[in-house]
Specification:
There is one protein chain. The protein is built from no helices and four strands. It is mainly β. The protein has a four-stranded antiparallel beta sheet with strand order 1-2-3-4, with no helix packed on it.
């Protein structure tokens, strides 16, 4: 079972999230996550992590 502190990269994610990307933006602390395929994506070191 994954915890909130685990680093879980989303492999093969070529889509760049951002304003107007078509996904729901969710403010999360000092950054914005994006709802994608039923989970949140967060930018991390040049890739997207699953939350």
């Amino acid at each position: 079972m994954a915890t909130a502190l685990e680093h879980r990269p989303h492999p093969g994610h070529d889509h760049a999230h951002g304003e107007g990307c078509g996904h729901v933006a969710v403010p999360h602390g000092d950054h914005v996550d994006y709802v994608h395929d039923g989970h949140r994506h967060a930018a991390h070191d040049g890739h997207w992590d699953d939350h």
